[in-house]
Amino acid sequence: MKYTVENLKHLRQGLGLCTAEYAEAQGLEKVTEPWKEKVKDGQYSDCLSIGPDKGTRYVWTLNGRVKMFQYGEYTLFDNEAERDAYRAQRATERAEEAKRNKLIARLTADLKSKSTEELEQLVAKLN
Prior knowledge:
Blueprint: E1 2-4, E2 8-10, E3 17-19, H1 20-25, E4 29-30, E5 43-46, E6 56-61, E7 64-71, E8 75-77, H2 80-112, H3 116-126
Parallel strand pairs: 3-6, 4-5
Antiparallel strand pairs: 1-8, 2-3, 2-5, 6-7, 7-8
């Protein structure tokens, strides 16, 4: 399963992360301004990022403390295979996006060299 910062919560210093389900099941209280007050036992704060990608993280879940596999600063997975499949999917998407951006850049450069009349004719053809 994929977990993002929206489904994860920070516990007090030293305890790390937990899932939203864990926080609810434990009856933990939400600290709304963690930058003003420290998160204490029995409390949690929203997770803005997991931190640098160190490969794995331990997270408190309804099944206890489990090892999860990290992808970037915002995403965790239950197992390595899911993470690796997501990594391959994202690499494909990034490659396609890079190819598309290069084509757009070429078109933009070509359009900048055209006169106003040529651009008007081109727009007329598009409509």
